[in-house]
Design a protein that fits this description.
Layout: E1 3-14, H1 53-65, E2 69-70, E3 73-74, E4 77-80, E5 90-93, E6 100-109, E7 112-125, E8 129-132, E9 137-140, E10 147-153, H2 160-177, E11 189-199, E12 209-214, H3 217-236, E13 244-249, E14 254-260, H4 264-267, E15 270-271, E16 278-279, H5 282-290, H6 296-307, H7 311-317, H8 321-333, H9 339-357, H10 368-379, H11 385-398, H12 402-408, H13 417-430, H14 432-439, H15 444-456, H16 463-474
Parallel strand pairs: 12-13
Antiparallel strand pairs: 1-10, 1-11, 2-6, 3-16, 4-5, 4-15, 6-7, 7-10, 8-9, 11-12, 13-14
Helix pairs in contact: 2-3, 6-7, 6-8, 8-10, 10-11, 13-15, 13-16, 14-15, 15-16
């Protein structure tokens, strides 16, 4: 029997407000353990929470970006569970009246757009952090009370790759909104995945497994790939599937059982008596909506329209807000008629430099004017493309002006026909077979001879002039 995969994702997103969700404690990553705490976030008796207005505004902004319906009435609930990292023994979250419902996000699946529904985006507070040592587990409560958004997708994802693409797109949108740093290493973006298998064509969902402990999008994808294999093997051997929570063991490349999965009844939700029902009116929503920035898909369509780019090229450039702004500034500054030349530099040599350094395009230490100067020198044939790529690397490494680097490396392109003719004569004498092949009509022989001249000139010969000179010489 063939099975189809059903995946839903729960993304937890820390909002980058200055203070916590219900108290005035600072949010400052990397501080000494248990230094950013107070009686409110530690749940001391008699303390009362007051919700952070900026966190509410950020949350509405995110919900609108995913086309969610903002609820006019929303409230906070107490979600009861007893873990060492939860000082109150309950988490302030939302249950039956969440901030928003019924949103969606588009991804590309098998070269076609696919709509992924978003069930709800709701508000809650973060728990502390457990630090496990050889003989003990320690608790750092600095993270306790940081405002969180939980973004819950519909079970519309049908492969680990779609899950990866959904997360990548979600992160890009949130970065454009500037409401979170989305740093998975710091824990500001975390993801749990629910996955089940069902017979191909069936409508009823299978028994699901929740996956935790995945600290990268690749980790989410790898865990889901493993789980598809594990569940398929169980189903094909007629073994019972059990609803449970499993941890991803990245070192072992497998999932392991953590606990049986709790349901809503196990958490004993009830309205938080210390927090009133919030009323979110239409003027407030309209004001936040009017201030939304241009989002990735809007920017992609504009890049395609205004700069005559392909969707593929535009997609690379708008994948992060910083890269989009850097790229657009470069494209607008470029004086040539064909903007594609600048785009080819951005998604070619520059992207290669960024990838090798594991940074974004806009994080490269490269002045836009120096890049434009370098491209201009290539177009004027004062330096070869090969030499220009070498200069680009040096410019990023040293922050020296490109003209200085060209002079220091003696990299100016050789266009002097007398000097080139001497090199060509030497190459012709050393490669008589290729000369004969060219005269016999084999056009590839010309490229070989040009390559030999480039080699002898240390890449400084002007390839177009060399090609013309060889053509005339041998014809």
């Amino acid at each position: 029997m063939k099975y189809e995969t059903v995946i839903g994702l729960e993304v937890h997103l820390q909002l980058k407000t200055k203070t916590k969700a219900f108290c005035g404690c600072a949010i400052d990553f990397g501080q000494p353990p248990n230094s950013n705490v107070c009686p409110v976030c530690l749940g001391f008796p008699g303390t009362l929470p007051v919700y952070n207005k900026e966190a509410l505004n950020y949350a509405i902004k995110v919900a609108l970006a995913f086309d969610c319906q903002i609820q006019e009435h929303t409230k906070f609930d107490r979600k009861n569970y007893f873990y060492p990292d939860l000082p109150k023994n309950y988490q302030i979250s939302q249950y039956d009246l969440p901030l928003s419902r019924q949103g969606h996000m588009m991804i590309t699946s098998k070269d076609a757009p696919k709509r992924i529904g978003i069930t709800r985006i709701h508000l809650e507070e973060d728990a502390g952090k457990l630090i496990h040592e050889a003989d003990a587990s320690l608790v750092d409560f600095n993270r306790t009370g940081i405002p969180l958004l939980e973004i819950v997708s519909e079970p519309d994802l049908s492969s680990p790759q779609e899950a990866f693409d959904y997360l990548t797109g979600l992160k890009s949108i949130v970065e454009y909104l500037d409401v979170s740093d989305c740093d998975m290493e710091k824990g500001s973006l975390r993801c749990d995945a629910n996955i089940s298998l069902r017979p191909e064509g069936a409508k009823e969902l299978g028994v699901k497994t929740e996956l935790k402990n995945m600290n990268s999008f690749k980790g989410v994808k790898d865990a889901l790939v493993f789980e598809v294999s594990r569940q398929t093997e169980l189903l094909q051997s007629n073994q019972a599937m059990v609803q449970e929570t499993r941890l991803w063991d990245a070192d072992g490349g497998r999932t392991i059982v953590m606990r049986s999965k709790e349901g809503a009844k196990d958490y004993r939700y009830f309205p938080d008596p210390d927090l009133a029902v919030f009323i979110i009116d239409q003027p407030m929503i309209a004001k936040i909506k009017s201030a939304l920035p241009e989002l990735p898909q809007e920017k992609l369509r504009r890049f395609v329209r205004d700069y005559s780019l392909t969707e593929y090229d535009a997609g690379i450039l708008v994948s992060s807000k910083g890269d989009a702004e850097f790229s657009e500034a470069c494209i607008q500054k470029y004086q040539g008629h064909d903007k594609k030349i600048m785009v080819n530099w951005l998604i070619g040599p520059l992207l290669s430099e960024a990838n090798s350094r594991k940074v974004k395009l806009h994080e490269l230490k490269l002045d836009k004017n120096e890049l434009l100067s370098l491209i201009g020198l290539v177009e004027k044939q004062e330096i070869s493309l090969l030499s220009a790529k070498s200069v680009l690397t040096q410019a990023i490494d040293t922050q020296k002006p490109v003209q200085v680097l060209i002079k220091e490396g003696n990299l100016s392109q050789i266009s002097n026909t007398d000097l080139l003719q001497q090199i060509i004569e030497t190459v012709i004498a050393e490669n008589t077979k290729s000369v004969d092949d060219f005269k016999a009509g084999k056009t590839n022989a010309l490229m070989f001879l040009v390559g030999q001249v480039m080699k002898k000139s240390a890449g400084k010969a002007n390839p177009k002039i060399v090609s013309d000179l060889i053509n005339r010489r041998l014809s």
